[in-house]
Automatic annotation (TrEMBL):
It holds the Pfam family HHH_8. The keyword Magnesium applies. It comes from Podarcis muralis (Wall lizard). This is DNA nucleotidylexotransferase. Belongs to the DNA polymerase type-X family. PANTHER family: DNA NUCLEOTIDYLEXOTRANSFERASE (PTHR11276:SF21), DNA POLYMERASE TYPE-X FAMILY MEMBER (PTHR11276). The gene is DNTT. The keyword Magnesium applies. Keywords: Magnesium, Metal-binding, Nucleotidyltransferase, Nucleus, Terminal addition, Transferase.
Length: 500
């Protein structure tokens, strides 16, 4: 981070030599070591900043020229809390919650007193009006949520609780914590006190109590209790195996299993083909797919698909389309412009890969789409597209593939020169492509809320195939995601803003 350039200041060293606007930091004795101050130039101006820095140093305060990692107190004049947080964001500061952001009147009070005064009443307050709208929408599809999460410590906690409720099949509580996490992911600032979330949707009493615990103690007893519970830990472990769902995990838990070793050693257990593959490639599959690996997989998928259908479009969807740097799998959507049915393509690609020894596991599901059917009411169910769930043997190092050379993290000497990664291929008819793309780009919470919004606000039904207007009793056609948002009366949200 180069603060000097960022704030537009002349580098201090030059200044000391020339105009002597400020004395070197070391020439005054620091009396108050616990507080390390940085004064923001924005809106205050350079000369007033220099004057205040100098004065504070004379009085024994430690004032930094740059916004270093050691700074504890940020002093600002005429800026709102939101402006400062935005400015911190521009300085690539990730954890803005570690600073006290204070009005300049705190510093002048300190200078007057000749010692640090209590800063609480000088803290800049965040209120949601700075979000640019009067209120934050209850729907994730009306919130632009990037991967910049200022509230990870809260959202991680909520996700543990949501997951635990999911394991216990308590949908209501699960959704409540998922929605709360989603709202906090959207906030362009770090929550530092409970009042910061006042007026935001989905902030119920339980949610606020957890936020309060984390603010005060850095942790929530309720979340810790889940993390330490044998049931949660076991179900989490079992469901981390590809092919093992909630039902199987619960069964294994009831049978007394607590580790994967115990499951693997029981010769009486009948595992599915999917689960056997899951255990066989467990280590590779739990270590997430990196962006580089996803790019390498993209090349392989594109080359292979276009080998059999040169005009086919292959689009990276899922988390990687939203800009994620890692994911549990790589999702692709395939469509052939001008063609409505391409049943053969996926089979040809899989056969080709099998011959190349690239397929460690696959399950090809034929399309079950019926033309007459309305968009489905099921929110989280799978769609009817032909699709294939694959474990791909991704080569490491530089590999020639078709006309391309792919390069993934090289194999370390003597070790296996490939990694097992999960790949999903979905084939959509061309006229449903926009709906399929929107549905497969996620996030899950974003998709849920798009459907909820369509149903409750527009009397429409949206799924991965179509949009149906129940009032006009017609299907609304769309050739792009933009057109679907327009049909729904929503502002367009870019894929990287859908990380709800
Ligand atoms: N999807 C959905 N509902 C489901 C399953 C999937 O709406 N029940 C959509 C949302 C994302 C996309 O399909 C791909 O699913 P995942 O791969 O599970 O999600 P992801 O966002 O790609 O997450 P990850 O990075 O972990 O793969
Ligand atoms: Mg994915």
């Amino acid at each position: 981070m180069n603060m000097i350039r960022a704030t537009g200041l002349i580098p201090m060293r030059k200044k000391w030599k020339g105009t002597q606007l400020s004395a070197p930091v070391s020439s005054y004795k620091i009396q108050f070591n616990d507080i390390i101050i940085f004064i923001v130039e924005k809106k205050m101006g350079m000369s007033r900043r220099t004057f205040l820095m100098d004065l504070a140093r004379r009085k024994g305060f430690r004032v930094e020229n740059e916004l270093s990692d050691s700074v504890t107190h940020i002093v600002t004049e005429n800026n709102s809390c939101a402006e400062i947080l935005k400015w911190l964001q521009a300085q690539k500061v990730e954890d803005s919650a570690r600073f006290r952001i204070l009005d300049v009147s705190w510093l002048t009070a300190c200078l007057e007193a000749g010692r640090p005064v209590d800063s609480e009443k000088y803290r800049l307050v965040m209120d949601t009006s700075v979000l640019g709208t009067d209120s934050v929408s209850q729907y994730a599809c009306q919130r632009r949520t990037t991967l910049n999460n200022y509230n990870k410590k809260f959202t991680d906690a909520f996700e543990v609780l949501a997951e635990n409720y999911e394991f216990r099949e308590d949908e209501g509580h699960c959704l409540a914590f998922r929605r709360a996490a989603s709202v906090l992911k959207f906030l362009p600032f770090a929550v530092v006190r409970v009042s910061d979330v006042e007026g935001l949707p989905w902030m119920g009493e339980q949610v606020k109590a957890i936020i309060e615990d984390i603010i005060e103690d850095g942790e929530s007893p309720r979340v810790n209790a889940v993390l330490n519970s044998e049931n949660y830990r076991s179900i989490k472990l079992f469901t981390s195996v590809f092919g093992v769902g909630l039902k199987t995990s619960e069964k294994w838990y009831r049978m007394g299993f607590r580790t994967l070793e115990e499951v693997k050693c029981d010769k009486n257990l009948k595992l599915t083909r999917m689960q056997r593959a899951g255990f066989l490639h467990y280590e590779d599959l739990v270590s997430c797919v990196s962006k580089a690996e996803a790019d390498a997989a993209s090349l392989i998928v594109k080359e292979s698909v276009q080998r059999f259908s040169p005009s086919a479009l292959v689009t990276l969807t899922g988390g990687f389309r939203r800009g994620k740097k890692a994911g549990h799998d790589v999702d692709f959507l395939i469509t052939v412009p001008g063609s409505s049915q391409e049943d053969e393509l996926l089979h040809l690609v899989i056969d080709f890969w099998k011959k190349q020894g690239l397929v460690l596991y696959y399950d090809l599901i034929e399309s079950t789409f019926e033309k007459k059917k309305l968009p489905s009411k099921k929110v989280d169910g799978l769609d009817n597209f032909q699709k294939c769930f694959i474990i791909l043997k991704l080569p490491k190092g530089k590999v020639d593939f078709g006309n391309s050379v792919i390069s993934v993290a090289s194999a370390e000497g003597g070790k296996k020169d490939w990694k097992a990664i999960r790949v999903d291929l979905v084939v959509s008819p061309f006229e449903q492509y926009a709906f399929a793309l929107l549905g497969w780009s996620g996030s899950r919470q974003f998709e849920r809320d798009l459907r909820r919004y369509a149903t409750h606000e527009k009397k429409m039904m949206l799924d991965n195939h179509a949009l149906y207007d129940k009032t006009k009793k017609i299907f609304l056609k769309a050739a792009s995601e933009e057109e679907i948002f327009a049909h729904l009366g929503l502002d367009y949200i870019e894929p990287w803003e859908r990380n709800a």
